[in-house]
Amino acid sequence: MNATTMAVFLVLFVFVTVLGFYAARWRRSSTRSIEEWGLAGRQFGTFFTWFLLGGDLYTAYTFIAVPALAFGAGAIAFFAVPYTIVVYPFIFIVLPRFWSVAKAKGYITASDFVRGRFDSRGLALAVAISGILATMPYIALQLVGMQTILKALGFSGYIPLVVAFVILAVYTYLNGLRAPAMVAIAKDTLIYITIIVALIVIPASLGGFGHIFQVANAKLGAAAKPSSILLSPKLYTAYSTLALGSAVALFFYPHAMTGVFASRSRDTVRKNAAFLPLYSLLLAGIALLGFMALAANINVNGDNNMAVPLLFLKEFSPWFVGVAFAAILIGALVPASVMAIAASNLFTRNVYAEYFAPKSTPERQGQIAKIVSLIVMAGALIFVVGIPLQFSLYLQTLGGVWILQTVPMIVGGLYTRWFHRTGLLIGWLAGMVLGTLMEASVGFTSSFFALSPGIIGYSGIWALIVNLIVVVVLTLILNGARVSNGQDHTTEEDYGTDVTSA
């Protein structure tokens, strides 16, 4: 535990903690209602939305796991770069329309939209279940990222992690979405500084990128499972389906939806779809850190997650190690807070208010959401402290699979009422069951399932294809039989009106 590193780390951590608590004074308004607490009154402009979305999509675990995958498996880790490029044209087209209907009808969650569009409590519950299931282990992995940094700093045991968790829980409870939005600015600034410095300083120290790629390729090829800095043709299908599936799923995670709904206007959403690819440049640099760790002869002792922290300890001066470690740990606080808010919004609006208290006021819903956010984060802490880490990782691989099964009802519902609500529900169930069984067949240790020895792909894409087939076939049958498809509680004007906050 270096004194200089620790001092810089603590100063920055205290700064962002104060910033999180200060959020209550920023654009002061009551956080009693769920719309104010969970969406900050839908008043974030382009600047804050860019930092908030970047902050909750590019998480601490990204900065740990992507280089760790490159360190251990090579080129497959770079699937994260194309998928974050592919996703933004999709966002530019789809999500402004989604924002408009959410604003016009007062929707807080994606489940609210599905409930109104298809007049189906079952579909709304399905979206809520997928969202909450996918979010819980995701929050746990943010805490894993924090734990990795604390371990590199020299802290042992769980007490430092619990302290950080308590701070996170309290400022989220008090300030809602405003807290992570403010902290995201500091977090992203520190992350950009860290990665830019790393891409300049570390290659210079290691003899340049040519030497780094040469050494990394040699070490990966000599591993027990031969890999390379170049993608094997056998992995083309796996790589492309994983990138495509991850791209489609990314903005349907509840925390991403929360950032979109909190935007001031549909124009804000469009601008962010144009500007957010800047983070993809950052992500490419982050992935390269795995190759740098190989070239620097980092010994992770079986824990690939330690590759980046140990690389920074070896290559940076102590004071900048403090900056880098603070950046990554703060990078866990923002997404974990937004994820907890998003999960509590889903439970409050689409479980509590739908099934237990249909007449609850927005203020009552806000109160329940605050309490549920604490329960969600406590559950995530239990994952890390009480359950083996490997189990949490296995559950996280299911997140994208589950989220993808909500795409037909959300994206389909945005553009047409042709799909039958019963078909959508059964298709969702088929996709959920099949995707989970595919993951179980490989022991939840991989995101890939082999349809044949030569066709290996992302389980979520195979499950989504089956989901869509079931939906289309049942829709043809049910519409042909003139089975009721419920009442649409939205109008076409709701989807195109660029309503802005007062």
Structure notes:
This protein is mostly helical. The chain has one domain (3-496): Up-down Bundle (Sodium/glucose cotransporter), CATH 1.20.1730. It is 75% helix and 2% strand. The chain is built from 22 helices and two strands. The chain has a two-stranded antiparallel ribbon with strand order 1-2. Strand 1 and strand 2 (455-458) form a beta hairpin. The longest helix has 39 residues, at 318-356. The chain is globular.
CATH superfamily: Sodium/glucose cotransporter
Shape by Cα distribution: globular
Computed CA radius of gyration, to the nearest angstrom: 22 Å
Tally of individual helices = 22
Give the C-level CATH assignment.
Mainly Alpha
Strand arrangement within the widest β-sheet reads: 1-2
Q: Which structural class fits the helix and strand makeup?
A: mainly alpha
Uncertain segments:
498-502
Mean pLDDT: 87
In CATH terms, what is the fold-level topology? Sodium/glucose cotransporter
Query: Which band does the percent of strand residues land in?
Result: under 5%
In total, the number of strands is: 2
| Element-by-element helix/strand order | HHHHHHHHHHHHHHHHHHHHEEHH
> Which sheet architecture does the biggest sheet show?
2 strands, antiparallel
Count of separate structural domains: 1
